[in-house]
Each structure stands twice: as structure tokens, then as C-alpha cells.
Design a protein that fits this description.
The chain is an alpha+beta fold and 324 residues long. The chain has two domains: 101 residues, no CATH class; 144 residues, no CATH class. Strands 3, 4, 9, 10, 11, 14, 15 and 16 form an eight-stranded mixed β-sheet that branches. Strands 5, 6, 7, 8, 12 and 13 form a six-stranded antiparallel β-sheet that branches. Strands 1-2 form a two-stranded antiparallel sheet. Helix 1 packs parallel to helix 6, helix 2 packs antiparallel against helix 4 and helix 4 packs across helix 6. It is flat, with a radius of gyration of 29 Å. The N terminus is likely disordered.
């Protein structure tokens, strides 16, 4: 079992090789950055990441007329938008409230073991919102989270071609091929808007959502979005901590790798141990942040009990029998 990593110039692969001291120092500093970053990622996922689905669900629906008179705070309204709508790229059939393009390219990369991996990667895209009104309420959705987009165009461009072709979407990809999608929010339906009201307008807020779905669909979509983000952060924290530990102990692992016969296996075991430690640490940190106040309360009660017992327990001098 070998681990092929190159962090800060420290190569651990086949148990051979150690780079310059400068590279080793850089690797250690990189590790000292990644480990605290992993701690912060867990903290962010538990305390800072907003579950917009829960916020949307708990906010009562009101009319645009009522929301326009609010002095502040979140409002959730529903209505048919009015405004100067625009055409989306490659979709001249109707004007839209919002459009987004995404261009992906089929790329080839080699992993740390030298194996070739091919996959689609996003290489570009644009988006545009149109300000609109719901009755007397103005909405500037530039920072909004769109929900319920409709895909209106799929185009494929083989490597070397000049134009995307909507008829070739399902072809087997070759390295260098590109594909494009266009998603829109149409104007022929009612919208749900959640955001912070200021001076008769919504232009932001801790939760800012413009949805073409009904309430149940919007809540489900936002909660799914939260779950995906939550677990991506957790996975990122594990990877950051693991890579950080490997970078910190990289110089030592490189030296161990020189041991005949068992060097490769030792470095592999250390890598697996670091990964297991990272998973357990992230899990414990998650529990700590979730149950912080319960743990603090139990700890405080335990300390109080120890103090009371210390005060009420009779004392005697060493070497003498306790009073009967």
C-alpha cells in the first residue's frame, strides 16, 4: 500500500524521496493552515450555514400590498411579476425574468497515481436578472437564489467545431468537446419571493429567494440544497484535515519511507490513520457544536457538584483517623 502525495515538496510515494528543506517547511505551514481551516468549516456548517428552506417555511405568506408598507424584516409574498423582461441566449421564443447559461468541457486529467480521469468541468457561463414588481412591491433580484428554473436549451459542440448543435447532445464525449445549457425563469406564472423589505422594496436579506414553484416545492428544493451544501462542507472538512495532517507529518513519512520492505506499508498505514482521525475529529466537532449548551450545562453541573462536595466533606490531617 502506497500513498502518492506531494504537499509542499514532500513526496510520499513508493516510500521514496524527500525534497528540499524549503519545500518541507512550506508543507508544514500548509498543514498548519489546513487543520484550523477544517475546524472552521465544521463551525460554519453547524452555526453559520443558513437553512433557507426552514426560514421560508416559518415565514408567513403576506400580500405584496402589505409587505410594501412594512418598515423592515423578512416578508414572503406571492404574485405575477411585471417589468421589462428580456430574451435569453438561444431562446427567442419568449421573454424571461431570469436566465443562466453554463458551458462545460470534457477534460482529461491524471490523478496522483498516474491514472487518467475524464469528466465534465464547468468552464464558463453567464446569468442575468430583471428587476420586477409584484403589485406596489419592487423586487431587485440580483442577489436572489433562483428556484424552479426551466432548461430551454441544450447544445453540443465537438472539439474544433464553431457552433453548438442542439441535435448532438447525447453523443459519446471526446476530450475537448463542450456542451451548453440555458435555464430560465419564465414570466407566465406566479412567483414566491422571500426577502428583506426596505422602503417598499426587496433587494436582499439573510434569505432571499425567488421561486417559480409552489410553497411545498420551494421548501423541498431549498432543504435539499441545504443538505447538499452541509455534507459537502463536512466532506471538505475531512479532506482539509487529512491533507493538513499529511503535510505536517510529510517530512517524517518521507524518512519512514526509506525503511526497506516496510516503508511503503508504514506510510500507507499512517495515511489511513490520519484519515480515520480526521473523520472521527470532524464527527466529534459536529457533536460539540450541536450540543454545545447541553455539554456546557452538564460540565457546569459536574463542576458545581465537585465544589459542593469539596466544601461539605470533613477534612482531617494526614496520618490521623477521621472523626467517628
Amino acid at each position: 500500500m502506497g500513498v502518492n502525495l506531494n504537499l509542499g515538496g514532500v513526496s510520499v510515494g513508493a516510500g521514496r524521496g524527500i525534497s528540499s528543506g524549503c519545500g518541507s517547511v512550506f508543507g508544514v505551514f500548509l498543514g498548519l493552515f489546513l487543520v484550523p481551516a477544517a475546524f472552521y468549516m465544521v463551525f460554519y456548517g453547524e452555526k453559520r450555514l443558513v437553512n433557507h428552506g426552514v426560514v421560508f417555511e416559518r415565514t408567513a405568506l403576506t400580500s405584496p400590498e402589505t409587505a410594501a408598507t412594512q418598515k423592515g424584516g423578512l416578508a414572503k409574498v406571492k404574485g405575477r411579476p411585471a417589468g421589462q423582461f428580456v430574451e435569453a441566449p438561444r431562446y427567442p421564443k419568449a421573454k424571461v425574468l431570469y436566465w443562466r447559461t453554463n458551458v462545460e468541457e470534457y477534460k482529461e486529467e491524471r490523478d496522483s497515481d498516474g491514472e487518467i480521469e475524464r469528466d465534465w468541468e464547468s468552464v464558463g457561463g453567464e446569468k442575468r436578472w430583471v428587476p420586477f414588481t409584484l403589485g406596489p412591491l419592487k423586487v431587485d433580484p440580483q442577489k436572489a437564489n433562483p428556484v424552479g428554473e426551466v432548461t430551454v436549451y441544450k447544445g453540443y459542440k465537438p472539439r474544433g467545431a464553431s457552433e453548438f448543435d442542439p441535435e448532438r447532445w447525447d453523443r459519446s464525449p471526446q476530450v475537448g468537446d463542450q456542451r451548453m445549457t440555458v435555464e430560465v425563469l419564465p414570466t407566465d406564472k406566479e412567483y414566491l419571493v422571500l426577502g428583506e423589505v426596505t422602503n417598499g422594496a426587496i433587494a436582499g436579506g439573510s434569505s432571499f429567494v425567488v421561486s417559480a414553484l409552489d410553497e411545498a416545492g420551494t421548501i423541498a428544493a431549498l432543504k435539499l440544497e441545504y443538505k447538499i451544501a452541509y455534507w459537502l462542507i463536512k466532506g471538505g472538512a475531512v479532506v482539509a484535515m487529512w491533507l493538513g495532517l499529511m503535510a505536517i507529518f510529510g517530512p517524517l513519512m518521507a524518512l519512514v519511507g526509506w525503511i526497506p520492505l516496510i516503508g511503503e506499508r508504514l506510510t500507507g498505514l499512517v495515511a489511513l490513520g490520519a484519515l480515520a482521525f480526521s473523520v472521527v475529529t470532524v464527527a466529534l466537532l459536529t457533536l460539540l457544536f450541536k450540543l454545545f449548551w447541553l455539554i456546557a450545562l452538564v460540565g457546569g453541573l459536574a463542576i458545581a457538584v465537585l465544589i459542593v462536595r469539596g466544601i461539605t466533606t470533613p477534612r482531617h490531617r494526614p496520618g490521623t483517623a477521621p472523626a467517628s
